[in-house]
Specification:
two-stranded antiparallel ribbon; alpha+beta
């Protein structure tokens, strides 16, 4: 103890670099320990592995379920995947027009084979964001033109999608026929 030393404070002794490399008995760790350390460093992911970051190639799947106006459950022979339509936000099922939006998407795509181009890796709920097409029809665009979704303001598609939303507003289609209601992102923030 030193005069004025706080008993709750720990003082660390600085080690020389060669002391750090040596074990307690002054010997270097065995070669197998270095090999194990090197293997662990090479195999350990840096954040997320490349396999997790890599998006799959576009694929065809059958729409198994429509959750709401912008989310599908699709199925292939070897996987089932939840996909959110890119660039749009449709009313939630419990919102005004939410069930209508789900029905419109069900009528468009329910039980049909669609092409999915994943654009963003799965989130913590395992949901991808992707471009979903039925033949030549982009389902995000179709939902906007039907007046059943809002265009998201960000992304390379935002100007075109905003124009589709505006066309539906001006034609008073879907949720734009009456009161437009609360945008889904504001509604979710209030819940």
């Amino acid at each position: 103890r030193h005069p004025g030393h706080d008993p709750n404070t720990v003082t660390l002794k600085a080690r020389q670099p060669q002391e750090v490399m040596m074990g307690k008995r002054g010997k270097a760790p065995p070669m197998w320990a270095w090999a194990l350390l090197l293997a662990a460093m090479l195999l350990a992911p840096a954040g997320a592995s490349a396999a997790e970051d890599a998006l799959p190639a576009p694929f065809t799947a059958k729409v198994f379920r429509v959750y709401d106006g912008d989310t599908l459950l699709v199925r292939t022979r070897d996987r089932t995947q939840r996909v959110h339509l890119y660039g749009i936000d449709a009313p939630e099922n419990r919102q005004t027009y939410g069930r209508n939006a789900r029905r419109v998407l069900e009528k468009m795509a329910g039980g049909k084979r669609v092409e999915i181009t994943p654009l963003q890796a799965a989130d913590d709920q395992g949901e991808w964001i992707g471009r979903v097409t039925l033949g030549e029809r982009d389902l995000s665009v179709e939902m906007l033109l039907a007046g059943m979704a809002w265009a998201l303001p960000e992304g390379e598609h935002s100007a075109a999608f905003s124009a589709h939303e505006l066309a539906a507003r001006e034609a008073r289609r879907g949720l734009w026929a009456g009161l437009s209601g609360t945008p889904p992102w504001e509604w979710r923030a209030q819940q």
